[in-house]
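Let us work through a complete example step by step.
Step 1: write down the sequence.
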Amino acid sequence: MSAPPFPPGFLWGGATAANQIEGGYAAGGKGLSVQDVLPHGLAGPRTAAPTPDNLKLEAIDFYHRYAQDIALFAEMGFRVFRLSIAWSRIFPQGDEAEPNEEGLAFYDRVLDELERHGIEPLVTISHYETPLHLAEAYGGWANRELIGLYERYARVLFERYGSRVRYWLTFNEINSLFHAPFMSGGIIAPPERLTEGLLYQAMHHELVASACATRLARELAPGAQIGCMVLAMPTYPLTPAPPDVLAASAAEHANLVYGDVQVRGAYPGYFLRTLREKGVELEITDEDREALAHTVDFVSFSYYMSACESASPDRAPGAGNIMGGIPNPTLPASEWGWQIDPVGLRLVLNQFWERWGKPLFVVENGLGARDELVEVDGVRTVRDDYRIAYLNDHLVQVGEAIADGVEVLGYTSWGCVDLVSASTAQLSKRYGFVYVDRNDDGSGTFERYRKKSFDWYAEVIRTGGANLRRGISS
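Step 2: predict the structure and record it as tokens.
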């Protein structure tokens, strides 16, 4: 049985991040970012300097091979490609008075290539790529000065690319700050100083910066749409017991507050109560309140998994996309422990649409798996039927949400070309339609090979989703 149809203007494509694909960590005048001292992602400690075992230093060498990769995206029929701009390519230290022209010119060339193939760019301004100097010298987003530095950076991007980019995202997974303070917020603080008060203040600074960028975009790129980006993880009560339902609601609120502020322009009552009960008093200026009133045009999000919550203190969280959560006993999980819940994507789309009434964009969704490169009829490929099943079932639920009346702008599958995992810094955790010959030990040729899912996704795009089938993984 076929899935519901997708609208004719639906933006099909794929998503990446500069720190996970580009490499060239010291090329073209680029400065260091927080990612350059995270050789093991969130799985290990940061280092004082870049180390040879950090795969992100070379990543998949998109910096030199972008034309080849974009040609492959065009072959699949991409209508949109989500990429991020590395802040430290534009401002190597983050606080210079003038931008780095070599960095700007690189992204000019990338945009030229996308335009040549008729692919719409979707640009993330800050995707876990805070310049390392801003973390070490300023304390990251805990410091109010980063608002002005980010605004300067955003101004340069809008002035340079505003006529070429129609869709912008201010921060990637902005609601991950409490769960990954260094990667998400560039925050370096000893345990005794890494308090909830400090993190809430850093959260406020990022939200103000996002709103300032939204205001700037309206001024400098009036034809563009600017959106926020949150990590979506629907949370179910572990049992129907009312305390578990309340615990699930509290977990949802902790995630939703970021979207509430960026869509509604002010902090909601439930969040203000949380601050009161924790004894936290935010430093909020009149200028901050004025800035927050500049709300986004659309809401984008990542979706990989759902989780459960319980009021019971002995329920331990499991693995997951940064936030984790209590495992759902009714769901299967990936090799990395991320629970697979396609219906959760439909639930999120409906929840966000009903809550915020803004167009939605699924900008990350995919399956990380260990792929085996094999030879079939003289051609090297990967038989990744497991990825096809995962993506099919999630896209069916996107179609169901559209049939429910939700306005969905598009879908960009995460890691459309194999990249270095943010959470584990591995290449063996592969997401792409394109296999990249590089391994966790740094070996490999960087050659690209089309997986079985490459042709499948091309057919999804060509048919507007008509080839999707309900429940092929069941």
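Step 3: interpret the result. The chain has a mean pLDDT of 95.
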